[in-house]
Amino acid sequence: MAHQVTQSLFAQVLDEASRPDPYPLYARLRETPVSRQGDDLYAVSTYAEIVSLLHDPRISSDERKSRSGSGSFGASGRLMAAENAQDGQESRKPAFIFLDPPDHDRLRRIVMRHFTPERVNRLGEHVVSLVAELLDRRAGHDSMDVVDDLAYPLPVTVICDLLGVPKEDEPRFHGWASALARTLDPPEGLSAEEVRQAETAAPELRAYLVELAGERHAHPSDDLLSALLTDGETERMDAPEIVATMALLLIAGHETTVNLITNGMLTFLRNPEALARLRADPGLIVPAVEEVLRYDPPVQFRTRTTLADIEIAGVTVPQGADVALLLASGSRDPARFPGADRFDPARRDNQHLGFGGGVHYCVGAPLARIEARVALGALVSRLVGPELAAGPPPYRHSASLRGPAHLVVGFDRLL
After folding, report:
1. Residues forming a β-bridge with 302
2. How does pLDDT run along the chain (415 residues), one tens digit per residue?
3. Could you give phi then psi for residue 216, rounded to 5 degrees?
4. How do beta strands 41-44 and 34-38 pair?
5. Chain-centre distance for alpha carbon 278
6. Phi, psi of 255 (to 5 degrees)
7. Closest residue by Cα to residue 135 from 303, 375, 390
8. For the chain, what percentages of helix, strand and coil (3-state, to nearest 5) are there?
């Protein structure tokens, strides 16, 4: 049984005061690789144990299977579920990341059938021109907010293009996405107002997507939504599954890549020697992005539920318990990564947990990598004399999807 001081550590991670730097808390958690943090909550903080559980079929992503029936963690799966009203009955289906095989595998296969490398490569060409356009807007200025000027508008524009969402609708779904992403944190970390906002956002987002799906069904285009709606294969999604998948991809496209780009630039600025190496050798941006995903990832933890008693690291986690897989802690585990707290843009053997692992490995990883490489590469090469504004940047509320709300950077000139 973990000591009381250990039981409080994960609660400290959730505290907004820890948002700028949760890594000392993760280091303390790693002293007890699997620790009980509450009546039915266990935190897993070391690399080997996290990887083992990411590949363990006795671990469920379906929060409905927890002892409470809804999970100790946020209601994201339920709030982001699609609904299909028929004869006054409401049918809800969680997005596939909140499902287990075989349902998860079927839906993921269908998405990947249309989210092809060719489609990603076409988007990559757009990313290059879009990054250049966004940075050009800062010509004649001596500062920029990396979030507002680049890290947010880039992935939002790309995800709109991918999914077939009109760009002019972006201000509407930005609020919905932010409210729902917040529910990935445990409920004790949410205010009553945040819960209310998420409960309001879910049906509004679903209604919007149902209407958009109707428009795309009548007038298909070259986008992922149209492809899912007109799929002629035997294995295809029904209408609620399409809406749930669209909601998931829309929110994921909003939240994670913004944090990846912003965390990356903040890390470069705090490590001037690494920044100088990147300027001298632009090809280093590829391993440097992987190192950002290890060193300061956009997704800090994910949660699971045990389907059976599981013994790991000398601790028996009982069936029905909720498990927090602290991915960011595992990627800083010195037992796996020498000099784990050092940022090394040329690090080798970098099998980080930045995109998770197992059957739930991030679907959007190839696109996120392209966006981060192009955006960060352009920032490094085009900003002359970049400097971080005084003081630590303000952080967004979420502990699980962690990143600065703003990142003001001054510079001498823009190339």
Report:
1. 325
2. 444 444 479 999 999 999 999 999 999 999 999 999 877 799 999 999 999 999 999 999 987 776 655 444 445 554 544 344 333 334 567 889 999 999 999 999 999 999 999 999 999 999 999 999 999 999 999 999 999 999 999 999 999 899 988 888 888 877 888 888 777 777 766 778 888 888 888 889 889 999 999 999 999 999 999 999 998 888 889 999 999 999 888 888 778 999 999 999 999 999 999 999 999 999 999 999 999 999 999 999 999 999 999 999 999 999 999 999 999 999 999 999 999 999 999 999 999 999 999 999 999 999 999 999 999 999 999 999 999 987 789 999 899 999 999 999 999 999 9
3. -70, -30
4. antiparallel
5. 25
6. -90, -50
7. 375
8. 55, 15, 35
Peptide bond into 102 cis (omega under 30): yes
Residue in the block written with tokens 């802690």: 329
Residue 176 phi, psi (nearest 5): -60, -45
Task: Quickly list H helices, 219-284.
Answer: 224-229, 239-270, 272-280
